[in-house]
Structure formats: C-alpha cells, structure tokens
Task: structure prediction
Amino acid sequence: MAETMENKDKKFVKEIADINDNFAQWYTDVVLKTELVDYGPVKGTMVIRPYGYAVWENIQREMDARFKAIGVKNAYFPLLIPMSFFTKEAEHVEGFAPEVAVVTHAGGAKLEEPLAIRPTSETIIGTMYAKWIQSYRDLPVLINQWCNVMRWEKTTRPFLRTSEFLWQEGHTVHATAEEAMEETMLMLAEYKKFAEEVLAIPVLCGKKTEKEKFAGAEATFGMEAMMIDGKSLQAGTSHYFGQNFSKAFEIKYLDKDGTLKYGYTSSWGTSTRMIGAVIMAHGDERGLVFPPKIAPVQVIIVPVAAHKGGVNEKCAELSEKLKAAGVRVETDDRDMSPGRKFNEWEMKGVPVRIEIGPRDIENGVCAICRRDTFGKAEVPLDRAIEKIKELLSEIQANMLEKSRARRDKKIVEAESLDGILKGVEGQNFVKAGWCGCRECEDKVKETAQATARIMCDEEGVPERCAICGKPAKHKVIFARAY
Amino acid sequence: MAETMENKDKKFVKEIADINDNFAQWYTDVVLKTELVDYGPVKGTMVIRPYGYAVWENIQREMDARFKAIGVKNAYFPLLIPMSFFTKEAEHVEGFAPEVAVVTHAGGAKLEEPLAIRPTSETIIGTMYAKWIQSYRDLPVLINQWCNVMRWEKTTRPFLRTSEFLWQEGHTVHATAEEAMEETMLMLAEYKKFAEEVLAIPVLCGKKTEKEKFAGAEATFGMEAMMIDGKSLQAGTSHYFGQNFSKAFEIKYLDKDGTLKYGYTSSWGTSTRMIGAVIMAHGDERGLVFPPKIAPVQVIIVPVAAHKGGVNEKCAELSEKLKAAGVRVETDDRDMSPGRKFNEWEMKGVPVRIEIGPRDIENGVCAICRRDTFGKAEVPLDRAIEKIKELLSEIQANMLEKSRARRDKKIVEAESLDGILKGVEGQNFVKAGWCGCRECEDKVKETAQATARIMCDEEGVPERCAICGKPAKHKVIFARAY
Result:
C-alpha cells in the first residue's frame, strides 16, 4: 500500500508510562488499561478479561490446528495429583514440590493423602500411560492437553508469572530414544515456526544448561524471545526424558522381539506467557501492537461525522463485507470524538483503522491507517476489502522483520565476565564461551544478573570460557530474563 | 438413501453387558471399552481420553459459536476462591461448602486463608464485576468461561458425576430484572436448541422447585433429557439471581437518572455430563451411537481384501475427498479381519461405515452402512461424497426423531402417589399435580425414589395434588434421575 500520509497524531493522550523511561510500569499500565487482564483476589492470580482471552483463543486455534496436522490428539487429565506420585522421580519432586498448592480437605473431611494441584502433568499422565500402553503397536502415543496449572510463585506479573496459568502440555511415548529425541526436536521446531509465523516474534532455540533444565529431564530445549528491553523471555520448552519417567512410572511395552521394554518419553509446553511475549516484543509508546493473526480485533472502523451523508450505513456495509471475508472487524459508533477513539484503539493494538466521513463517501474512498508504522493511505471503497486483506498480511510480515532486525542488532559477543556484564547492561543478548561448570554460570548470575538462556554450540565454540578463561566447551547466550 | 440390504451382522462379538439386562454395567463397559474415558488415580476423578475429548471439542466448538453469535464473550477467572467469598451469600455457602475441595498449603507454607477450588464461579466473578461495572453504559455484561470445576461427590460415574468436570459457565449482569430474566430464558432456549440440533436429544425445559433450585438463585430453569432407561438427566441449567448476588458482592451501576443501583444477574451452565446424556440417549446393544455433528469420527472406511485391485488407493482417494468436503473420516487399515473392525467401529458409534473391496471397484461402487438403523446400500463411487453428506444429515435428523418418539411414549400422567410410583417403575416420566409443599415432594422421593424434575404449569395445572389430594398449584414432571 502506498502510504501518502502520516498518521501520527502528535496530540495523543498519554495514559500509560513512558516505554523508554519505565518499561515495567508501561507493561503494567498497558495490560490493565487495555483490559487484557486484571489482578485476581488471591495474590499472584490473574483474571484474563475478554480482550485478553480472545488473544489466547486465537493462539489456541492456530496452534491446535498445527498439532492435529502432525497427529497429536487432545485429552484431559485430572487437576489433582496424589503427592506420592511426585516422589517417584527424584529430580522432579525436588524441582516442583516447593511450588505446589496442596488440597488437604475435601467434602468436609480431611483427606487421607494430600493432593497437589498439577504444576505440570508428567506424573499423572505417566501413570495412565503405564496402564494404556501394552505393545509396540500402541506406540507412539502423542497426546496434548489444554488446561490450567498452578505454581506458587513469590513475585508475579500478569501473563509472565502467575500462580495459575493456562497452557498446553504435550506428552509423548516412543519405542526408541531416537524417536523420542526426534519428537522433542520436532515440537521445538513447531514452536519456532509458530512464534515467527503467528506471533511475529523471531526466537532463538537451543539446549538448556543442566542448571536451567526441567526437573527430571535428560535434556531441555528452550525457545527464547528478545523483549524490547533486551531481556529474554522463555516462550516455550521441549523436554527429552529418556527413560527417566518411564522407569519411574513403569511405562513398558512388549516389543516385536517378545521382550518387555521401557518406553522413551518427551513433553513440551507453551502458555499464556506468550501473550506477555507479544506485548513486550511489539509494543510502543502508544501501547499494544498486535500481529494480525492473533489480534482480537483486526480492523476497527471509526465513522467521522457519523450523523451525516450515509456514513453509518457505509460503515455497516464495509463491516459486513469484511466479516464475510473472514476479517475480525468492529465498528466504534460510541458517542465520543474520533480522536479519543483513535487513541483508545491504538492503545489496544488494533492493526488497521478505517476512517470514513461524508467527504470520503462523496469521493468514494476511505482512509486506512496501520498501527505498526502509522502509515495512512486513501483507498477506493470498491477496493477496500482486497486492500485490507493485503495490508493485514503485510503488517504480519513487517512486524516479524522489524523484530528480527531489532533483535539482530542486539546480539553481541563477549570474552570476559565484564564483557558479559556490559553486554546485558546495554540490553543485549551476549554470546560467550563457557567451560561448562556451574560455578561460572553462578558467577554470571551474581555479577550480571544474567542467566544462560540456551547453548548454541553449532555456531562454533569459542576457545576460552569468558568467565574463568579455561577451555570452553560450549557457546552460550547469556541474558537477563523474565 | 435407498437401503437395499440389511447390515445387522448376527455374529457380532458381544464385549459389553446387555443393555436391557444391566444398563448401568452396559454404560460402564461402553465408556471404558470404547476408550472415551478412564478412571483417574484419585477417587471420583476421570481421565477424558482422546476419543472422548474429541466429543467435547465438537460440543465446545458448536456451542461456543452459538454463544458468540449472540454477543457472549469468553474470559478466564481464577480456579481458587477465598473461602470467605462463599459466606457472602447465605444460601450459596450452605449449598456448596459441603462439596468443596480446600487448599490449605501452598509454596511450602500454610495459607492465611484457606482457598476453595471453584465448584462454580458466581462469587469470584461477582467480585470482579463489582470492580468493572461503573455505569449503565457498561451493561449488559455477558461473559462465559470454559473451565474445570470441582465438587466432592460421594458416588461418582464417568461423565455423569465426577469430582472434577469440565463445563462452561456464563455470568451476566443487567440493568433491570426483566432483562436478566430474559437472558435466563434466552440461554435456556439456546441450550434446548443445542441439545436437539446438535446432540439429537429432545429435552423438556421448565422451572425447578425450591428444593431443586441452585443454591442462591431466585429461580432455576432446567433442561431434562430422558435416557433409554426412562431416567432423567439434567443436561443444563439457567439461573435467575435477581439482586441476590449483586447485593452480596456490591455489583452496582450509576443509572441514567444519576442514582446508584444494584444490577440483576444470571448464570447458566452445561458440562461434560452432556457426553453421558448422548451415550445414554442413543446407545444400543452394540455400544455407542453418535449423532454425526459431535461424532469424533463421522465416517470409517474399511478396506476389504486390501492387498488386491487397488483397494488401498481407492480408500485413500475417497478419504481425501471426504476430508476436503469437511467430513471427519478415518481409514482402518490395520491387519485384522473386516468383521472385527466392523464390531469395533460399531461399538465406537461411528455414524457411517464405508466398505470397499476389489469387486466393488470393478463395479464402480462402495457399500455404505449406517450405524443408527443398520441400513446398508450400494452407492456409485462417483456419487459417494454427495451421498455421504446427505446421509450424515439424515442420520442426525433421524436420531432426534427416534429419541423423541421413544420419549413421548414414555411420558405418563398420574393422580396418586401410587400412580407416580408405578409410572417411574415403568421407566416413565410422570406428570402430576402438586400442592407445592416440600413434604409431598419428599414423600415422592421416599416412596418412588423420584424427584420433581421441572414444573410445566403452562400445560394446565391439575385440580388436585397427586400426593396429598389438596388443591394443586403446579404440574410437575417426576422422574428418577442421574
């Protein structure tokens, strides 16, 4: 679209903190004022309001279709897990027990065994798999569930870290280690595609260090997204368990050769955190900027001088046509000034705004404004639907490229602890050599408040550990993180 | 479709209890053997397996689209509710406190206030509404959530009554009593349409007695479905709260006239119980019979003598065409006899089976068998897609009519307690006059193990109470119930 006008209204009313001055306050202001979310009555909980839940529904629909296309089926496992299940896998209980919420009473009586509200479902799903799987013919098992989980957290923020959150957790069982590892990597690749194609967020994927891996996993692979402030947000993980859980839960199958063998398992998850990632990857001084694929409202129509010259009728006509073309559109016919409406819908991150006034109708045109670049163009009314559909694709692509360019400029290399500190202080991801020892990893945390996000050895391992100077075994991306 | 053949294989292998001899055992056998569901590790919980969850997904998708079409938006409210919230509405706490599961510890420490796992969300949603609603401009609020809830039950059965279940709960706020009542009745009507059009289950709707109404409601309206054994299953409810909850939770708005007023609220819900209703309304001696609109698999293709004459290729071609036509189709190419496959898919309730063998291909035909009537017909391959789509609609309509005819024959009238007893013993719904007093209602329960399902005064109230002989105030449907 040839944008001939500049849409950036200098007089916009600032209802939110300055994104450059105080990013944390900007985030809080934006999520509350756009009515994405509210604080729940219990500390650390959130209420996902209709505008925020619509984002989650769009994410779910897109992701669920992708899962189904590769043979994953959905199921639902119980919320409550006997505490004893956790103790079957030693690392797992150590990792999750401290965060668990526990039901001790129910139906007016004390329970014989306390029950955990699932923080993750490996243990209960493993128990069921052990019952269901008999033979190699039953493998692979590829099941996902969409549900709520609970992890009691000390510091919480809406979408980013709350005691209860919504997620999907996939749990698979395979006959061989190779197949389970293949699945682990396949799902990581699916997540990466999803983040880029749907959320318009470029991500870096790789193996986690021992310190950062999931409790009970042989290996965890993470997907890291850079936020506007240069911090990293882990937006999804995929775990390879080897036989850890199949041995703990007796997931065995009779193989073709007539012998009983333990299966190999994987699990992988993404959550409502992704909404936080979208907010902090794309937002600007005016508020939210949604990629069209997940925007609750893709197009907002604002009538100008609505009482005159058939404006309302033309808006309704356009809205119907857009709906028929599969566009999520709303018309704002409230009795208030167009300027206030522009402000509000910009803050709410709607990708495209259409303005129609009496003069536009006379000229057979409407004005189309895009949220991502503030570009504005006049478009003939009879070509508006086609133009808007093109524009939505263009915005989706542009947002990814813009994020990618921003991120790529903010990945630096360091050869010393001081270099790592300077790098993260400059709001960068820092690549550095690492000897592989826990002490060096902890030192980065203490000194730079940064953690090892992923390893990217495939890029070539530096000669020396940036922290201790000994020979490096890995190339690591260090960053401060949400 | 002209069904020229009879498909009822006399040799079918009976893996499930006799539906006429032992309906309860038949139900348990069917839900477990078709892999709809399994028992969870904690007493009273269920695991909804992929085949069962697909039914729920189909129900959700259909119902959710209907909600959205009438302006309802989805949101998500927290699972955990402070116990003190329940005590704000006196009847509500009395009704739900005994069934609640309570979290007393979390994050390794004892909580200051115990938290209930939501048995229903009026209290927490009311708390948020009080915060969100300021002015008449904010009304009506029409919000729904899809979530899990928990009610600690003593006797449980998969789908019908489990401690945890999945449901949707809509919660609305209105400026006037009339609007809130209109909404209550609108949603009841929506549920009825859904039950009939989607589940193919005819339902009776009406007001509940004081004894049977929701704890805290001014009035509850229920939707009752007759199961094959003549018992009733409450498949959905819609509640009018008047100002009970708005006063308890301070849901107030500033009206046009400048005064602060309490809103009027409603709530309405349906759950995974509906899956139980479908099983027990349509099943037969061979197992499940799914209405096409919610069947996880609508068409199963079974190749006969698959190794010969391009059978597999033809099956794959047909499957692709059906998928493209929006039909949920699977091909069973397992290495076992077609007869065993027929048995299994009949038990699993798949509406249509297609058989293709080498001779069929030579003749350019396939055999199409319907699950509901066991009718079988030969259809030209080049018209198969069209025929199958027609047939799916026909089956959907036929199942509703068949259920309706069966039910209508089993509604009787009674003029005495003995008449009520005989009626329900004969597996009927029994219509009778009722004076309106609790004693008579309790007497029916004691004597006939039946409860007042709904009132249907609009049909004309009988002169006398069938129980005590005093003047009747209502006409009631008594039935045994799930």
Chain A has three domains: 23-282, 297-394, 411-479.
